[in-house]
């Protein structure tokens, strides 16, 4: 298996995306630690992983709290011998459907602040244990909004751009110590779309979209005319975290059915 004898921490492991990636890591043999603020959802994912024969534990961690992140990473590394992989699936509360000129600045910047804070704290805490061992993988998730020009998405594109830039910076600084850093850029993932709408029309003139219309609109922007699934994202995350991808770092890995090229 790709991740035998690896310890992987999934922050936001109780969420839709974090849970899917955690299950993928476990299927490939990793010892998975689900970290997050809501213990009930962490436990639900952990039960699924155990039922499938995986090795998993949970930990209450606030990825926006410096001490919480550092203390958890230190304790885990002492107990199991190190941290091999981290994946940040912490969500944000971006506000869509409002023109930027009508949006309060605090509403625009808060998701950016939280995204960069969590990614920085997670990477710093993990890398302190990875550097002495000369290996490790730090993964983030972004989306094609970082490259597409879409109106009324608030800070989403800026937030994803910022995460990708931070990953490149971390990759450059940590690379000489054998640590790889990457962002996985997806489409919207249908399984993660909650509710039936109405959703913003994002400049289409529809006056709001249903869930089905939103998915179709996103599909039509891809080369494959479909969207990335949770299982596909999990498979790519497991591969990029493995030694099979040992030459890849400082990259944005496009897992987006051709919605973005660079």
Percentage of β-strand residues: 15-25%
Helical residues, percent: 40-55%
Give the N-to-C terminal Cα separation: 30 Å
- Summarize model confidence as the mean pLDDT: 96
What is the gyration radius calculated from CA atoms? 18 Å
Structural class: alpha/beta
The oligomeric status of these chains comes to: single chain
Based on DSSP secondary structure assignment, what is the total number of beta strands? 7
Largest sheet: 7 strands, parallel
Report low-confidence residues grouped into runs of 5 or more: none
Task: Please tell me about this protein's structure.
This protein is an alpha/beta fold and 262 residues long. The chain has a single domain (7-196, 229-255), classed as Rossmann fold, CATH 3.40.50. 40% of the residues lie in helices and 16% in strands. It contains 7 helices and 7 strands, in the order E-H-E-H-E-H-E-H-E-H-E-H-H-E. It has helices at residues 16-27, 39-51, 66-80, 105-130, 156-174, 211-219, 230-241, and strands spanning 7-11, 31-36, 55-60, 85-88, 136-143, 179-186, 251-255. Helix 1 crosses helix 7 and helix 4 runs parallel beside helix 5. It is globular, with a radius of gyration of 18 Å. The mean pLDDT is 96.
In summary, what is this structure?
The chain is of the alpha/beta class and 262 residues long. It contains 7 helices and 7 strands; from the N terminus they run E-H-E-H-E-H-E-H-E-H-E-H-H-E.
Please describe the structure with a list of short key phrases separated by commas or semicolons.
262 residues, alpha/beta, Rossmann fold, seven-stranded parallel sheet, 40% helix, globular
């Amino acid at each position: 298996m790709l991740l035998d004898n690896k310890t992987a921490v999934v922050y936001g492991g109780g969420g839709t995306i974090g849970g899917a990636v955690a299950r993928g890591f476990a299927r490939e043999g990793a010892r998975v630690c689900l970290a997050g603020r809501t213990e009930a959802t962490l436990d639900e994912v952990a039960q699924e992983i155990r039922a499938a024969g995986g090795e998993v534990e949970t930990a209450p961690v606030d990825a926006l709290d410096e001490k919480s992140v550092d203390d958890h990473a230190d304790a885990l590394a002492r107990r199991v011998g190190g941290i091999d992989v981290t994946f940040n699936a912490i969500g944000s509360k971006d506000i869509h459907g409002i023109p930027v000129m009508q949006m309060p600045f605090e509403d625009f910047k808060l998701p950016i602040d939280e995204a960069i804070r969590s990614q920085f704290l997670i990477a710093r805490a993990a890398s302190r244990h990875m550097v002495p061992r000369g290996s490790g993988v730090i993964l983030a998730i972004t989306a094609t909004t970082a490259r597409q020009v879409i109106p009324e998405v608030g800070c989403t594109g800026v937030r994803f751009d910022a995460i990708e830039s931070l990953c490149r910076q971390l990759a450059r600084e940590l690379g000489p110590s054998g640590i790889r850093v990457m962002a996985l850029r997806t489409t919207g993932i249908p399984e993660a779309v909650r509710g039936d709408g109405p959703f913003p029309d994002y400049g289409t003139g529809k006056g709001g979209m249903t869930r089905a219309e939103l998915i179709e609109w996103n599909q039509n922007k891809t080369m494959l005319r479909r969207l990335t699934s949770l299982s596909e994202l999990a498979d790519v995350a497991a591969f990029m975290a493995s030694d099979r991808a040992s030459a890849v770092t400082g990259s944005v890995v496009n897992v987006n059915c051709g919605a973005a090229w660079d």
